[in-house]
Amino acid sequence: MCAGYMDKTMRDMIVSHAPSAAETLDSLTQGESCFIDPTGAQVGESVQGEEGIAYATLDLNECVEPKQFHDVVGYYQRFDVFDLKVDRRGSSVESMFVDEERDVDGTAEGQDESGRKGGGKT
Question: Which of 23, 36, 62, 92 has the fewest CB atoms within 10 Å, counting from its CB?
Fold first, then answer.
């Protein structure tokens, strides 16, 4: 988890353009940069309220099992939350961006493979 750091120079520049922002900026807690393991526990060092570098030793083997339950590429295992439905009714709205028909190979109808208008495919 990575947070930006706002130093005094940045704070003063913002306040010079928007004086009403001073109270809000001064009341905020600076964000924290740290490492979090798959269970949500913090790993290693953290940095907050200053510019710095955080260090941690991570075991990537700990990520394998949780990833199986949180697969962002299409096999998300939350059947209680997600549902797939296919609307077979079709749509009466035609695309506004279609300029010409395309064949299966991607060439426009009435063009040869080089893109020249003319007699079609050979």
Answer: 92
Both structure tokens of 104: 């299966």
Note the helical H segments in the chain.
8-17, 21-27, 64-69
pLDDT for 70 equals 62
Burial 94-118 (b: 16+ CB within 10 A, else e): eeeeeeeeeeeeebeeebeeeeeee
Q: With contact defined as beta carbons under 8 Å apart, do 3 and 29 qualify?
A: no
Which ranges of the chain have pLDDT less than 50? 119-122
Which residues touch 46 (CB under 8 Å, ≥6 apart)?
A: 32, 33, 34, 35, 54
Q: What is the pLDDT of residue 18?
A: 92
Alpha-carbon radius of gyration of the chain: 27
Q: Which residues are CB-neighbours of 14 under 8 A, at least 6 positions away?
A: 21, 25
Does the predicted model carry a pTM greater than 0.70?
no
d(CA 47, CA 34): 7
For 1-122, list the strands marked E by DSSP. Answer: 32-36, 42-48
